[in-house]
Design a protein that fits this description.
Helices cover 80% and strands 0% of the residues. By secondary structure, it is mostly helical.
């Protein structure tokens, strides 16, 4: 893996995996947090997650160059390979997602199966576990490499999971509004509140991660921090991640909660849209920040 140069396809895949896992995780957690009032958001998240997983699989296949290699990965045993792990996470996630869709379809038609409560419990938590794996397994894998930015701190998986949750809240708000689905005002409020909380945690984790790199006793770690905070990735980090993806959405969410512009529905989508843009830039910074030395001399494909 250390010789690999990851380009835009892998960056896009990691972002889409975060969307898929974060959307389902956020819907389930907000539903549990607010007393199981929001089955409609869980249903919307379920029907959105599986197509996102399929798009991620298509990106991985495209990055391999030859679609046949996708099946070779399934037949191989290479747990140290990000492509191998990604393939199996997507396949298993899609199978679980298919089961979730069947469960939601049955629930939508008010069909009551024997042992429905037990089934609901098992399906909810199985889906939640796989969603968390899909959203964060790449970050866990990166921390096990010898690339300094990826391995110098254990905070990268925490950053990915909180970012995925924020993406999930934003995606549900955009998806339901775009398709004119019925999302209660209470659920919309809970999602905006949850997103604001996730953004605050993301800011704190990101700051801690950078402080860890800057004050590391390893010179290469300090160099990695310089690459991200100053150049070549400084503009993308400060403008794309910090300002566009975190601070601006947080300010907008606070203003929306205070003034509640009911006649200005598009205004309520500005914050979620910025969150998705910032999360994509974050993954770009993470992917290329860990490969700085490699892609300066050998541009990524």
């Amino acid at each position: 893996m250390d010789e690999m140069v990851w380009g835009w396809k892998i960056t896009a895949y990691i972002w889409i995996a975060g969307l898929a896992g974060g959307t389902y995780m956020c819907a389930i957690l907000v539903n549990l947090w607010d007393g199981r009032w929001h089955r409609e958001s869980v249903r919307a998240a379920t029907f959105l997650t599986v197509p996102l997983l399929l798009i991620g699989a298509a990106l991985l296949t495209a990055d391999l160059g030859q679609p046949a290699r996708f099946w070779h990965l399934l037949a191989a045993w290479r747990p140290g390979s990000p492509m191998w792990l990604g393939t199996y996470v997507l396949v298993l996630g899609s199978i679980v997602g298919g089961g979730l869709i069947i469960h939601e379809a049955i629930d939508a038609f008010k069909v009551r199966l024997p042992g429905a409560d037990t089934l609901e419990f098992l399906v909810t938590w199985l889906g939640l576990i796989f969603a968390a794996v899909v959203a964060t397994y790449v970050a866990v894998l990166l921390t096990s490499t010898s690339r300094v930015f990826w391995s110098a701190t254990p905070l990268l998986p925490a950053l990915f999971v909180v970012s995925a949750l924020s993406m999930g809240a934003a995606t549900i708000l955009i998806f339901t509004r775009f398709l004119n689905l019925q999302l209660s005002e209470r659920m919309a409020t809970r999602l905006r509140q949850a997103d604001a909380i996730f953004v605050v945690f993301e800011l704190a984790i990101l700051a801690a991660l950078m402080v860890t790199l800057v004050f590391s006793s390893t010179p290469l770690a300090s160099k990695a921090a310089q690459d991200i905070l100053i150049a070549p990735l400084g503009p993308a980090f400060w403008l794309g991640v910090v300002v566009v993806g975190l601070i601006a959405p947080l300010i907008i969410e606070i203003l929306v909660e205070r003034i509640k512009p009911k006649t200005m529905a598009p205004v309520m989508l500005v914050g979620p849209i910025l969150v998705l843009i910032g999360s994509l830039v974050l993954r770009y910074v993470v992917v290329f920040g860990g490969q700085t030395q490699a892609w300066i001399s050998r541009p990524p494909v």
